[in-house]
Hints:
By secondary structure, the protein is α+β, with helices and mostly antiparallel strands. Helices cover 14% and strands 34% of the residues. Strand 1 (10-12) and strand 2 (15-26) form a beta hairpin. It is elongated. The termini are far apart. The mean pLDDT is 88. It binds zinc ion (ZN). Zinc ion is lined by residues 42, 44-45, 47, 63-64, 66-67.
Amino acid sequence: MSVLPRGFTVIWGDQTYVPISIQAHVKKGGSLTNLITWETECPSCAKQFTLLTGMAFKSPRRRCDACKAPGRKVSQDKKKFRKQIEGVLP
Ligand SMILES: [Zn+2]
């Protein structure tokens, strides 16, 4: 991985994304770019999962496939999770 400095991570919200591989990719027009595979922890179930992005890291996926919930804020999940731990919710 020569493109990113050693130990590079991205923190989005309070979620940490760690790059685990970079692959060269040819775009439609024929120009070269890189695709990055990131590893992060799902804020809903705490499992590690991977996602693929281009070099522009914009609005990355927050949750794993099992927990995906487009449009629902991650902070709502966290509040529910905390209530479950505290025994407020079943
Ligand atoms: Zn999950």
